[in-house]
Amino acid sequence: MLPSLLTLADVLGTGHHAAVRAGLGSRTxxxxxxxxxxxxxxxxxxxxxxxxxxxxxxxxxxxxxLGREFGATDVVAERGDEGIEQVRELAGGDGTHTVLExxxxxxxxxxxxxxxxxxxVISRVGVPQYDDGDIGWNLFGRNLTLTGGPAPxxxxxxxxxxxxxDGTIEPGRVxxxxxxLEQTPQGYADMDNRDVLKALVRP
Length: 203
Hints:
single chain; 203 residues; alpha/beta; Rossmann fold; two-stranded parallel ribbon; 9 helices
């Protein structure tokens, strides 16, 4: 249970924050962009909050498989126009009500703009690695809401912890390799190289 409790200090609270800021409802359709630990936690969070359709955009099969176990109803591996077209088709042609952008790179934001439906919400929790982005007519004219930001994870602990303690959710499954403290730099390198989803450091 310890790995699951550890996610409360970071990735679970961040994925949950993305969902909360998006204002999810029980019949909401959601696209989650990014199959890293935060993206997978966002899938788990929106499933927990009752989203009806959850489309995960990710390119790593093992992570996508875990995303399906966490609640993704569909997975789209393609990017660019092809990926946008697939998501919109899965969502009835209009795109999804909300998009949770969990990457932080400009192509991910552009993907979000492409798959969200008119009047929808884009919630960003991926730390932006860019200074410019489309906030003009494409956002304004389609009545889109852009929200998100750093997650106040401590605020969510009391809400999320009971579901971990009673086994309703098992977010600790995102930790796929453990390292001794002295190998912490190697853990970061392995995550950066996409050899590891989330490194668990044990003292």
